[in-house]
Amino acid sequence: MGRIVVTEFVSLDGVVEDPGGAEDFKYGGWSFEVSRGDEGDKFKLDEAMSSDALLLGRVTYEGFAEAWPSRDGEFADKFNTMPKYVVSSSLEDPAWANSTVLDGDLAEEVGKLKAEYEGDIVVHGSVQLVQALLDRDLVDELRLMVYPLVLGAGKRLFGETSDKKPLRLVESKTVGDGVTILIFQPAGET
Known about the structure:
By secondary structure, this protein is of the alpha/beta class. The protein has helices at residues 37-49, 58-67, 74-81, 106-116, 127-135, and strands at residues 3-11, 51-57, 84-87, 99-102, 120-124, 141-147, 167-175, 179-186.
């Protein structure tokens, strides 16, 4: 059975908007202002290489589909060849290789993906999708790379939920120039 793993670059005040600088956010590219160092880079590469598939919201999917096909290297090769699933009610014909649109019931679609894969189905960015997954208790692991920046504006990772969501910290470490990697799982899971 596969696992839904959410991975996010997040500011200290919870902002996840435009860490890479491609979305016209006034602080876009903020994740490049602080080095995550070799250990942080290795964490992201290892995460990508151990992923079985990507699960993305439409906006993140479109940004990735524009950026990754023209890149090369180990990370890009993995992203470009692995199966990708995009949750969208408006996208009809995804052009990025190995992409499939999911437009049915979220819990049902996620259940099918978890049954199909043995490893991690990783969600990058995709704030609206992540909030829906968290609200429906569909996230098996939450990986936050917390940057020591307060942005004061922008889309936040956590929105309102239907109930509280207890989490258990399973790993933490600081890399680079103060970037903290926090890995959580739902409380009660091992």
